[in-house]
Amino acid sequence: MIGKTVREPGCQTGVETGMKYQKTEMKRDSGERRSGSDPLGPNSEIGRKLRQYYADLISEEIPDRFNQLLSELEGKEQPQSAVKED
Amino acid sequence: MSPSPSFRNGLLAAVPVLRAFAVSLAKNADRADDLVQETLVKAWDKQDSFQPGTNLKAWLFTILRNEFYSQMRKRKREVEDTDGTMTAQLSVHPSQEGSTDLTDFRKALELLPEDQREAIILVGASGFSYEEAAEICGCAVGTIKSRVSRARARLQEILGIEGESDFGPGSSTTHITNVA
Question: Is this prediction's ipTM beyond 0.85?
Answer without folding.
Answer: no
